[in-house]
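User: What would this chain look like folded?
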Amino acid sequence: MAAFNDAGELVWVGEAELPSNNSHAPVDDYDKLSLVDADAIWAFNSRQTAIEVLDRLAEADRIEESVSGRAARSFSNIKDAISEFDAAGMTTVRGFTNLKQEVNL
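Assistant: Here's the prediction, encoded as C-alpha cells.
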C-alpha cells in the first residue's frame, strides 16, 4: 500500500498483515518500510495478529519492546503505544476495519 499527496510525493507506505507461520516475514517487511522516507502504517486483521507481529519485531530488535498488558487490550491502546516508539518502519498501526473507514472518508 502507498499514498501520495497532490504533488505526487509519497506520504505513507503500508503493510497488511495476516497470521503467518513465517516468523521472519514481518521483520523483512519492517526493514523494507524503514528505508522509505514516509510514514509506515501497518494494518492487521485482528488484535491478536498485531500482538504476535509486535512480539516478533521486538525479539528482532526492530522496535523498543513488545506491547503487552493494558497497552495490548485494544487497537487504540496498541496505536498509542506504537506512537511512543521511535520506529522508522512502523509509524502507526490500524485494524483492517478502521483503516477501511479512514480511507473511505
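The helical segments are 25-34, 47-59, 75-83, 96-103. If you want, I can go into more detail on any region.
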